[in-house]
Amino acid sequence: MSVSNPTLITFVIYIAAMVLIGFMAYRSTNNLSDYILGGRSLGSVVTALSAGASDMSGWLLMGLPGAIYMSGLSESWIAIGLIVGAYLNWLFVAGRLRVQTEHNGDALTLPDYFSSRFEDKSGLLRIISAVVILVFFTIYCASGIVAGARLFESTFGMSYETALWAGAAATIAYTFVGGFLAVSWTDTVQATLMIFALILTPIIVLLATGGVDTTFLAIEAKNPDNFNMLKNTSFIGIISLMGWGLGYFGQPHILARFMAADSVKSIAKARRISMTWMILCLAGTVAVGFFGIAYFSAHPEVAGPVTENHERVFIELAKLLFNPWIAGVLLSAILAAVMSTLSCQLLVCSSALTEDFYKTFLRKNASQVELVWVGRAMVLLVALIAIAMAANPDNRVLGLVSYAWAGFGAAFGPVVLISVIWKGMTRNGALAGILVGAITVIVWKHFNLLGLYEIIPGFIFASLAIYFVSKMGAPTAGMVERFDAAEKDYNLNK
């Protein structure tokens, strides 16, 4: 091991605690609804922190600080876009989706909701949306496993191959055992750990580099453009970074938190908690990468690992500046970010395979116990595929995340957003939206058209497809009736 034992001991204690929470949740998991959505029992604090932690994956402590370290504040447009997008998602989608899913067959998954909301008897909408989830989430899961592997590799001197399995094992364990409740309860612990790390670390880096004035002078001496928000950017570049915010409307692992809230009344409080947590975390992340420029320019003799891979800036600062016990806690925050997102992604994939394929098409009368165990088997299956995809040591976390984020944002974002605010949307409109959004992202990414982030054309084209195709038909009386009842319920209880 390349670091002293306290860090390893801290990791082991943390992982053991997460697995213990999994076993506690196991005792509360009696049926598929419990395993997939926790029986819709999450209070406002757990809903808020779980939504935040499941959103902020390994890129929060690795990808984004690395981008800031390399390019300066011009990379922070992504943080601004995310904050705006997350707030609008809480404001327009969260409460309405909670009510709409309940009024539409008590839907447990997004494909389930689409199928009920648009009375899709053919099963086509369910199949296509479940396939989109499986394709893009497996890529997303791979990004989480890469981040975990990088952490174990650089912290404990493991080979990449060994680190790959070590990083994934604990997450798979508690997700397999405890399902949604385990994921949500551990997310709350992990969100607390992440905000602690992201507030403490930049403060200590600032002190180590001589305070605010000295740090800023060192950053300016390295490259004055580090302060320039418009450095090496263009209008298209800024729009692309801000466009990340559009992704929130279509992320199944975040939307599942809204669906699992105990009531609409919890949503407003959850929104305030979640946005405060998110703003503090993103500010801390930007500060870590930015102040890291000053620290490593003053200490070039220890800058080797960061020069080799800039996504290790937080890891190296934690190891260099803190007592090994505290460093263990801070590095556990990266593991927390990875585990919190990976666990709920595995669960969403598992629920798509179990609820939307196995139960719907293979075993309509399967018992609840059987479905829970099928769900657990699917967690293992998706995890193994994601590990295989993550086996390339040249993978970069932010690149993998950006593709999956765009896929979901464009394929599901417009469908979810429009379905909860417009009663005139039809089944064919939803189908067109999903297909146009997903195909646009794949084609745009392949040809790298205009240098524009693929989520933006995907979101726009999908929204237009939904509107025009829906206008060619009309929703049924039942669809309008359920929409109106849900909207009335939402307005009475929000």
Automatic annotation (TrEMBL):
Membrane topology, from the record: Multi-pass membrane protein
Cell compartments where the protein resides: Cell inner membrane; Cell membrane
Keywords tagged on the record: Amino-acid transport, Cell inner membrane, Cell membrane, Ion transport, Membrane, Sodium, Sodium transport, Symport, Transmembrane, Transmembrane helix, Transport
One Gene Ontology cellular component annotation held by this UniProt entry: plasma membrane
GO biological process, one term: proline transport
CDD domains on file: SLC5sbd_PutP
Catalytic reaction list: L-proline(in) + Na(+)(in) = L-proline(out) + Na(+)(out)
Transmembrane feature ranges: 6-26, 76-94, 124-152, 164-183, 195-219, 234-256, 277-298, 325-350, 371-391, 403-422, 429-444, 450-469
GO function term, MF aspect, one: sodium ion binding
Taxonomy, superkingdom: Bacteria
Coiled-coil stretches: none
NCBIfam families named among the record's database cross-references: Na_Pro_sym, sss
Similarity comment text for this entry: Belongs to the sodium:solute symporter (SSF) (TC 2.A.21) family.
PANTHER family the record matches: SODIUM/PROLINE SYMPORTER-RELATED (PTHR48086), SODIUM_PROLINE SYMPORTER (PTHR48086:SF3)
Function: Catalyzes the sodium-dependent uptake of extracellular L-proline.
Protein name per the record: Sodium/proline symporter
Source organism of this protein record: Pseudomonas edaphica
